[in-house]
Write a structure and sequence with these properties.
Structural class: alpha+beta
Number of helices: 3
Oligomer: single chain
Number of strands: 3
Largest sheet: 3 strands, antiparallel
Helix content: 40-55%
Distance between the termini: 45 Å
Radius of gyration: 15 Å
Strand content: 5-15%
Order of helices and strands: EHHEEH
Number of domains: 1
Strand order of the largest sheet: 1-3-2
Length: 74
C-alpha cells in the first residue's frame, strides 16, 4: 500500500525542449507508429531527423514540439 501523502515519482516527459529523441521514444509519445513517423519524414510532413551515427538517428524535441503546435493550430 502506498502512502497517499508521499508524492509519486514520475518520469520526465521525453518531449521536453532541448532533448534529442529516438524514434522508439517519439512514436509512443505521439501516439503513432515508427513506420508512420518515417513515412511522414519521407513525405516532408514531419521534421527531418539528425543522423548521429550509422545506427543512431534523433529528432530535436524543439522541432517536434513546433510540428505539434502547427497541428494543434490547424
Amino acid at each position: 500500500m502506498q502512502n497517499p501523502k508521499k508524492p509519486q515519482i514520475t518520469p520526465q516527459d521525453p518531449l521536453q525542449a532541448g532533448a534529442n529523441l529516438r524514434v522508439s521514444t517519439l512514436a509512443p509519445r505521439l501516439g503513432i507508429s515508427k513506420s508512420t513517423i518515417w513515412r511522414l519524414v519521407r513525405e516532408g510532413k514531419f521534421p527531418k531527423p539528425i543522423k548521429l551515427s550509422d545506427k543512431v538517428t534523433v529528432w530535436k524535441a524543439d522541432a517536434v514540439l513546433a510540428w505539434l503546435e502547427s497541428k494543434e493550430a490547424a
